[in-house]
């Protein structure tokens, strides 16, 4: 069992010489060699242009883990964007994904309110996301 | 205008049905479908303490403020499984008195990440916190 992600960055003209970076990661649970063992794959319409919680709150927050999150803005309109935010004590809207753009990053909910949220620039934007996570007690109790 | 592309190929057989996703994006400036990001900064740093420090200050970004739009690639090239960087956003700092306002996650040995970065102001610096003080190397590329 394995989960891998390869990134290829290329540009023929952003520098005097071509840029070509390729890297592959095989994801394991924190600090070891055990494969990641849980995954969630969603395509959703974000509905209204208000904050949406992407990953449900966990009562296992602030645990050391190797969880990863992939998000893509499925819009084909270059001006339509989704703001990615970490909620929490202050809330940090750290970046925007415009139509067709994606992000991939580690995500550890480090405090009870530190949720990943997305804020669409208009109603009706579709996104897809993949959450790769390890065997924490990830679902909040009812 | 330069053209830079970033392609991801993600595959997993965690579930009974395997998942394979491949996507390529062009690094355009904010809200553009024609104007590519036209500056790049490629850095390799050696961090020799476990202090939390700025990896990239917001002022390094070519696009800042409420409409800021840059892309940031970070890699932990360590081959020691237990070595990680904590990545977050916060205020400028040169030592452990800095404040990670919000932590994003743990970047373990061999892991990489690629994020859009608004670089709105000094509270949006990208901060890093090595797990060990024995000369951990980090690599990053900033496109603006």
Topology:
The complex is a heterodimer of chains A (142) and B (144).
Chain A: E1 3-11, E2 19-26, E3 38-45, E4 52-53, E5 68-73, E6 81-86, E7 92-98, E8 102-106, E9 116-120, E10 126-133
Chain B: E1 4-12, E2 19-26, E3 40-47, E4 53-56, E5 70-75, E6 84-90, E7 100-108, E8 112-117, E9 125-130, E10 136-143
Antiparallel strand pairs in B: 1-2, 3-10, 4-9, 5-8, 5-10, 6-7, 6-9
Detailed description of the structure:
The complex is a heterodimer of chains A (142) and B (144). Chain A is mostly beta strands and 142 residues long. Chain A has a domain at 36-133: Sandwich (Jelly Rolls). Chain A is built from no helices and ten strands. Chain A has strands spanning 3-11, 19-26, 38-45, 52-53, 68-73, 81-86, 92-98, 102-106, 116-120, 126-133. In chain A, the strands form three sheets. Chain A has a four-stranded antiparallel sheet, with no helix packed on it. Chain A has a four-stranded antiparallel sheet with strand order 4-9-6-7, with no helix packed on it. Chain A has a two-stranded antiparallel sheet with strand order 1-2. Chain A starts with a strand and ends in a 9-residue tail after the last strand. In chain A, 40% of the residues are buried. The mean pLDDT of chain A is 89. Chain B is mostly beta strands and 144 residues long. Chain B has a single domain (38-143), classed as Jelly Rolls (Sandwich). Chain B has a four-stranded antiparallel sheet, with no helix packed on it. Chain B has a four-stranded antiparallel sheet with strand order 4-9-6-7, with no helix packed on it. Chain B has a two-stranded antiparallel ribbon with strand order 1-2. In chain B, strand 1 (4-12) and strand 2 (19-26) form a beta hairpin. The relative contact order of chain B is 0.28. Chains A and B meet through strand 1, strand 2, strand 3, strand 5 and strand 6 of A and strand 1, strand 2, strand 6, strand 7 and strand 8 of B. Strand 1 of chain A pairs antiparallel with strand 1 of chain B.
């Amino acid at each position: 069992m394995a989960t891998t992600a390869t990134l290829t960055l290329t540009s023929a003209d952003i520098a005097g010489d071509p840029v070509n970076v390729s890297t592959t990661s095989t994801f394991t649970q924190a600090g070891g060699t055990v494969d990641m063992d849980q995954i969630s794959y969603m395509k959703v319409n974000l509905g209204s242009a208000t904050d949406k919680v992407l990953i449900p709150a966990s009562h296992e927050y602030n645990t050391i883990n190797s969880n990863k999150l992939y998000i893509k803005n499925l819009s084909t309109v270059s001006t339509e964007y989704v703001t990615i935010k970490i909620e929490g004590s202050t809330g940090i809207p750290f970046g925007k994904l415009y139509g067709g753009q994606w992000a991939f990053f580690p995500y550890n909910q480090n405090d009870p309110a530190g949720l990943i949220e997305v804020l669409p620039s208009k109603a009706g934007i579709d996104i897809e996301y993949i959450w790769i996570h390890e065997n924490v007690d990830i679902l909040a109790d009812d | 205008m330069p053209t830079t592309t970033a392609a991801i190929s993600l595959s997993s057989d965690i579930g009974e049905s395997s998942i394979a996703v491949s996507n390529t994006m062009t690094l355009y400036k904010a809200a553009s479908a024609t104007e590519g990001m036209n500056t790049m900064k490629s850095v390799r740093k050696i961090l020799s303490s476990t202090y939390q420090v700025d990896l990239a200050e917001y002022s390094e970004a070519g696009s800042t403020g409420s409409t800021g739009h840059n892309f940031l690639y970070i890699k932990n090239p360590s081959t020691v499984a237990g070595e990680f960087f904590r990545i977050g956003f916060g205020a400028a700092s040169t030592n452990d008195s800095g404040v990670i306002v919000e932590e994003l996650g743990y970047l373990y040995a061999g892991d990489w990440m690629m994020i859009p970065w608004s670089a709105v102001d000094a509270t949006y610096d990208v901060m890093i916190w090595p797990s060990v003080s024995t000369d951990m190397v980090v690599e990053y590329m900033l496109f603006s």
